[in-house]
Design a protein that fits this description.
The complex is a heterodimer of chains A (about 220) and B (about 240). Chain A has helices at about 10-45, 50-65, 65-80, 90-115, 115-125, 130-160, 170-185, 185-215. Chain A has about 220 residues and is mainly α. Chain A has a single domain (about 10-215), classed as MetI-like (MetI-like fold, Orthogonal Bundle). In chain A, helix 1 packs antiparallel against helix 7 and helix 7 runs antiparallel to helix 8 (about 185-215). Chain A is flat and about 70 Å long. With about 240 residues, chain B is α/β, with parallel strands linked by helices. In chain B, about 40% of the residues lie in helices and about 25% in strands. Chain B has 9 helices and 10 strands. Chain B is globular. The chains are: A mainly alpha (about 220), B alpha/beta (about 240). At the A-B interface, helix 5 and helix 6 of A face helix 2, strand 6 and helix 3 of B.
């Protein structure tokens, strides 16, 4: 056994900074993906055929190709195409947000369709306009049902965020690699960030459970 | 007040309503009865356009409802509807169930809406339940809240779609009593029901539907004692 965690001690502040760097784009991507995903879900259940088609085509593209490929296309191909030098941060948000929205839209669509049809009818009979009905009546009930699935998606996104290290974004994962290269020891820094990822996911899990408990209005 | 002319409704190949023509006058209580699958509920749901008629017109105070120029949301605000399965909003408490539409749709202030809602809850005997969630209410209580919720919009017409069919037997009466009070107050009501006793006692008119056709339109006394069609006779023999 050739383990020496003492060697990474001087690098710990450097690695810990990566937590915020990772969280920063993960949080923004989750929010971006959630909002866009809700919009896509509404497209999919719309009566307008063109919107259905758009929602399905979008999902098929972003769910049907590797996330790392989407990230690389955004980061490496956009500058070639437009001349705009896109930052790793923006590329990461775009890739993860756009990708996550495809999955989130499927979750939300299923959630909306699982809400009792009587709820829509009751709202319609009261003269509630579609937009308000969705916002105040249908989506809150759908969200409650799909919370575990959504949490799952957020957890996946948090972990998969490590692939931004491939475009040189200095997140947790990338920092572990930098430290590993610096001290010629990879096991310690990798285990260390592995533990941090696990902690982040645990925090997310706990938050999910708390929210779920608070939303248990009807059982 | 409500004119229904030559109403047809088709679901795929299945023609559920086959040309129904009738009127419901202001202040009238009309019971719609008939065997299952006769199109009673569909007929009721065409009045506030939860179902869009295939053919024919429904007009309320001279305004045609299926017309593109009519604001269907505005019309629906004047028509209260009570469903078989209550359809209360499970994530809102009783008071919020009642005030949601008046505040968000009609733009009433919270104060006004809540005062009105409390009045209505007192009328249906549920004052102490205003903070309860629907899941904590019995079926009868849920349906009374649902009636109050519809009344909170101050409708001119109330539609009831089998309001007691999903209730335990001992809860039927409390709901029917609320409906009786409402009828006495002069509300225009159209009620799809299997409660023959209620129809006979409260209704001003009985419409008998079978196979999507309006077979009889008579006063309850006349309909129950002396039905004109063989089909109605047969039906009454089975249910009474």
């Amino acid at each position: 056994m050739n383990l020496d965690f003492n060697q990474i001690v001087p690098y710990i502040p450097f690695i810990l900074e990566g937590i915020w760097v990772t969280l920063q784009f993960v949080i923004i991507s989750i929010i971006f993906g959630f909002i866009l995903g809700t919009g896509l879900a509404l497209c999919k259940i719309s009566k307008i055929k063109a919107l259905n088609w758009f929602g399905d085509a979008y999902t098929s593209i972003f769910r049907g190709t590797p996330l790392i490929l989407q990230l690389m296309i955004i980061y490496f191909a956009i500058p070639q195409l437009t001349g705009y030098d896109i930052s790793p941060f923006l590329s990461a948000i775009l890739a993860f947000g756009l990708n996550s929205s495809a999955y989130v839209s499927e979750i939300i669509r299923a959630g909306i369709q699982a809400v009792d049809k009587g709820q829509t009818e009751a709202a319609q009979a009261l003269g509630v306009p579609y937009r308000l009905m969705m916002k105040d009546i249908i989506l809150p009930q759908a969200l409650k049902n799909i919370l575990p699935a959504l949490m799952n998606e957020f957890i996946t996104l948090t972990k998969e965020s490590a692939i931004v290290s491939t475009i040189g974004y200095l997140d947790l994962m990338r920092r572990a690699q930098v430290v590993g290269a610096d001290i010629y020891r990879n096991f310690e820094p990798l285990i260390f960030v592995g533990f941090i990822y696990w902690l982040l996911v645990m925090v997310l899990t706990i938050i999910g459970k708390i929210v779920e408990r608070r939303m248990k209005f009807s059982d | 007040m409500i004119k229904i002319e030559n109403l047809y409704k088709q679901f795929g190949d299945n023609e559920v309503l086959k040309g129904i023509t009738t009127n419901i006058n202001s202040g009238e209580v009309v019971s719609i009865i008939g065997p299952s699958g006769s199109g009673k509920s569909t007929f009721l749901r065409c009045i506030n356009l939860l179902e869009v008629p295939t053919k024919g017109t429904v007009s309320i105070d001279g305004k045609s409802i299926p017309d593109k120029n009519t604001n269907i949301l505005k019309v629906r605000q004047q028509i209260g509807m009570v469903f078989q399965h209550f359809n209360l909003f499970p994530h809102l408490n009783v008071l919020d169930n009642l005030t949601y539409a008046p505040i968000k749709v009609k733009g009433e202030s919270r104060q006004v809406a809540e005062d009105k809602a409390r009045n209505l809850l007192a009328k249906v005997g549920l004052t102490e339940k205003e903070k309860a969630f629907p899941s904590n209410l019995s079926g009868g209580q849920k349906q009374r809240v649902a009636i109050a919720r519809a009344l909170a919009m101050e409708p001119n017409l109330m539609l009831f779609d089998e309001p007691t069919s999903a209730l335990d037997p001992e809860m039927v009466k409390e709901v029917l009593n609320v409906m009786k009070d409402l009828a006495k107050s002069g509300m225009t009501m159209a009620i799809v029901t299997h409660e023959m006793g209620f129809a006979r006692e409260v209704a001003d008119r009985v419409l008998f539907l079978d196979g999507g056709v309006l077979l009889e339109d008579a006063s309850p006394a006349e309909f129950f004692s002396n039905p004109k069609t063989a089909r109605a006779k047969d039906f009454l023999e089975k249910v009474l």
